[in-house]
Design goal:
CATH superfamily of the largest domain: HUPs
Strand content: 5-15%
Number of strands: 5
CATH architecture of the largest domain: 3-Layer(aba) Sandwich
Strand order of the largest sheet: 1-2-3
CATH topology of the largest domain: Rossmann fold
Bound molecules: tryptophan
Helix content: 55-70%
Distance between the termini: 31 Å
Oligomer: single chain
């Protein structure tokens, strides 16, 4: 039986952190066994809101690929590729743009939220490119006949919009495109070290997969704990302590129980508790860090993975564009 096709990816705007790890990366590593997987580094999409900072996007392409490889995305199982190396995706974007109204794009909840957050780059009027990125994302997905798109909740409106484009295309030009489904990564959403609901670079509350042990310790030492607990023998409330929250992710059940009860009884100080947590995080991430080092020391291997992946991906996208152009009566000189 043919494997179903899965496609997902990230904008290369920063290194990936443990939020990405628990939220989506672990899942991708599992799913690559079951699906024909395409993992895209969405550099063109990253430029839609970083067009004035191409250096940032370029630099982070490599970081994101290193993060993928370090967590175990296997280039022999999954195709890791660079969006800008697939010009067919840009072509599809142009064709699909006739099938979407401006009003519909402006109503897309994800786009709407992002525009509101990006006033400093867009000012009072958003660019055509940013407003239209859901169209280009539809091209990303359909170019590969992907039917499974693992994403977080925030991306659901984009998948919905892609499905609408597919239906519209097929109703006009014939049954060519596959309608994808979002696959909600049942991963956890990880709070920041400061207790913020979201972990993010701009918030400065993230532990990166590439952080060195000293950095991890320093960050954990600054994590937010029960503010009422000042002295070591004050009775603490682990339910409102980020250190306890992270113990639940990185420490054994027994350790968690011990840490919790000693905190409640005022028997364990926050510093000892944080040191223990930092060590567990350092140990959990050790194999990831080591794998990352291996690839960091072999940049030509990483280049090769990305080039081979992009070539493979392009072959697939070429098949789709051929079918699409034929259906749209743009196949002038083909027999
Ligand atoms: N929009 C996604 C993000 O911001 C990245 C992305 C681009 C993507 N194209 C995609 C995700 C296609 C899934 C499918 O993370």
């Amino acid at each position: 039986m043919e494997k179903k096709i899965l496609l997902t990816g990230d904008r290369p705007t920063g290194r990936l952190h443990i939020g990405h790890y628990f939220g989506s990366l672990i899942n991708r590593v599992k799913l690559q066994e079951e699906y024909e997987s395409y993992i895209l580094v969405a550099d063109v999409q990253a430029l839609t809101d970083n067009f004035n900072n191409p250096e940032k996007v370029r630099k982070n392409v490599r970081e994101v690929v290193l993060d993928y490889l370090s967590v175990g995305i296997d280039p022999n199982k999954a195709t890791i590729y660079l969006q800008s190396m697939i010009p067919e995706v840009a072509e599809l974007t142009v064709f699909y743009s006739n099938l979407v109204t401006i009003a519909r794009l402006q109503r897309n909840p994800t786009v709407k939220t992002e525009i509101a957050q990006k006033k400093e780059i867009f000012g009072e009027s958003v660019t055509y490119g940013f407003l239209g990125y859901p169209v280009s994302q539809a091209a990303d997905i359909t170019a590969f006949d992907a039917t499974i798109v693992p994403v977080g909740e925030d991306q659901l409106p984009l998948i919905e919009q892609c499905r609408e484009i597919v239906r519209k295309f097929n109703s006009i030009y014939g049954d060519i495109l596959k309608e994808p489904e979002a696959y909600l990564s049942n991963g956890k959403r990880i709070k920041g070290l400061d207790g913020n609901e979201k972990m993010g670079k701009s918030l400065g509350n993230a532990i990166y997969l590439s952080d060195e042990p000293e950095e991890i310790t320093k960050k954990v030492m600054g994590a937010v704990t029960d503010p009422k607990r000042i002295k070591k023998d004050d009775k603490g409330n682990p339910d409102i302590c980020m250190v306890n929250y992270y113990h639940n992710l990185f420490s054994s059940k027994e350790e968690c129980n011990e840490v919790c009860s000693e905190c409640r009884e005022g028997k364990r100080g926050c510093v000892a508790c944080k040191k223990q947590l930092a060590n567990n995080i350092i140990e959990t991430l050790r194999p990831i860090r080591e794998k990352r080092k291996y690839y960091e020391e072999r940049p030509e291997l990483v280049d090769k993975i990305l080039i081979d992946g992009s070539n493979r991906a392009r072959e697939k996208a070429k098949e789709t564009i051929k079918k699409v152009k034929k259906a749209m009566k743009l196949d002038y000189f083909e027999n």
